[in-house]
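Something for you to look into today, if you have time. What I am after is a single protein written out in full by you. I want to see for myself how the chain folds. Could you add the entry underneath, on a fresh line?
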Amino acid sequence: MKLFTYTLILLYFYIFSSCKGDSSNSAPFDGVFVTESGIKFELKEDSTTLILFDDTLNYEGVWSIHHTNESEYANIEFAGKPDYYYLKDKKIYRSKREMESDWMGTKIQYLN
């Protein structure tokens, strides 16, 4: 009976430990990344952002996470427009339509 009980307990832990999502697929958007054109984005955990351009201009704004049935993406505000940039799958887009069709996305590289 003890063996059966231990087997059930181990099976219970195995089943529920395998139900955890893979943290690498959870779309962690916060961090510092650079686009291919050299624009540096710093997305902070408090949903604020700092965008640094090559010519030493910078812009402070906010960013937010959005969910669809198929995926998760982030909007980054620029110049008062809350949906100026779209960030998904390590690419940044200028419109939702471009993001949904994976067209004209600029690859990014996280620095941290």
Remarks:
- Confidence is low (pLDDT under 50) at residues 18-26.
